[in-house]
Amino acid sequence: MYRAYLKELDTKNRMASSKAASKLKAILFLGTVRENRVGLRVARFMQKQLEKRNYEVEMFDPLEMKFPLLQKPVHFYGPERTGAPQWLQDAEKKIKAADAFVIVSGEYNHSVPPALSNMLDHFPGSIFSYKPSAIVCYSPGIYGGMRAAMALRPLLSEMGTLSVSNIFGIPEVHKALDEEGVPKNDHMEKGAGKLLDQLDWYATAMKNHRNTAGVPQ
Ligand SMILES: Cc1cc2nc3c(=O)[nH]c(=O)nc-3n(C[C@H](O)[C@H](O)[C@H](O)COP(=O)(O)O)c2cc1C
């Protein structure tokens, strides 16, 4: 009897450790498209930090992916997505498969850069739901883009993704990272680390619960 119990425990432990070893999938949304944007440096830096933590990362760059000004969100093409451009359907599938989101946002007029909200508006909230998100904001000034982060919170909340309490704000961003996203001070990895500790926790917990209990329909 006791042996059977130990055997069951061993199987459970092995299952738990193989789950822990499996990679979490993250989508990193880059929020700006401006010529000489600094956002790309921040996104590159965050991608490295995520990969170091064993995330499989996909960067959504509105410039590279050529998101048009919103004409038709993917879910407006109907349940079969009939006629939706293939690139948009592929992007939706990637978001659906993701466990966590990282939003890299500059601050434009104390708010969210339009390229970022335009990109997010292409997708239904249901594919972001029951998954966590982490906000990384920046500015050349001393406030680190925090006002944009505050404006992002209700937007992310409406999309159904839980924005973790920590926000990684990067003041004087041009002094913090070189063009390749290599940090120029010690605060960068520390700041990202605090944010990603929270993201990891929620992403793992929510993934496990999605897998065992599903989500409300
Ligand atoms: C339209 C526009 C509005 C801006 N508004 C703000 C602002 O409200 N607060 C701020 O700190 N910086 C503001 N800036 C400066 C940006 O923070 C800075 O240009 C930053 O590098 C933008 O990110 P990006 O380089 O990725 O585009 C603004 C820049 C633009 C182009």
TrEMBL record:
Transmembrane annotation, as ranges: none
GO terms for cellular component: cytosol
Molecular function GO labels: FMN binding; oxidoreductase activity
InterPro entries xrefs: Flavoprotein-like_sf (IPR029039), FMN_Rdtase-like_dom (IPR005025), NAD(P)H-dep_reductase (IPR050712)
Domain NADPH-dependent FMN reductase-like: 25-174
Organism of provenance: Mytilus galloprovincialis (Mediterranean mussel)
Protein name: NADPH-dependent FMN reductase-like domain-containing protein
